[in-house]
Design brief:
The structure is a single chain. About 0% of the residues lie in helices and about 50% in strands. By secondary structure, it is an all-beta fold. The chain has a four-stranded mixed sheet with strand order 1-6-5-3, with no helix packed on it. The chain has a two-stranded antiparallel ribbon with strand order 2-4. It is elongated, with a radius of gyration of 12 Å.
């Protein structure tokens, strides 16, 4: 499992620059996606998927993000 915990209320995710198209489960279709507490609830472990297209083939990856994480 991939997991990112940040104390801040936002995190920038980057899917990589070699792909032809991007689709984020939280909305958006660019290589990078700023995830904020407007997208996912603060303090709650939330799964985010990104589907990328490369030469006509689709690949999906996911990770868990926790924003405003308190140690």
């Amino acid at each position: 499992k991939k997991e990112i915990k940040v104390e801040d209320n936002q995190v920038l995710l980057d899917a990589g620059e070699i792909y032809d198209a991007y689709k984020w489960s939280v909305g958006g279709n660019s290589q990078t996606r700023l995830i904020t507490t407007k997208d996912i609830p603060a303090g709650k472990k939330t799964k985010i998927d990104v589907t990328v297209t490369y030469r006509g083939f689709e690949f999906t990856d996911s990770l868990f993000v926790i924003l405003s994480f308190e140690k």
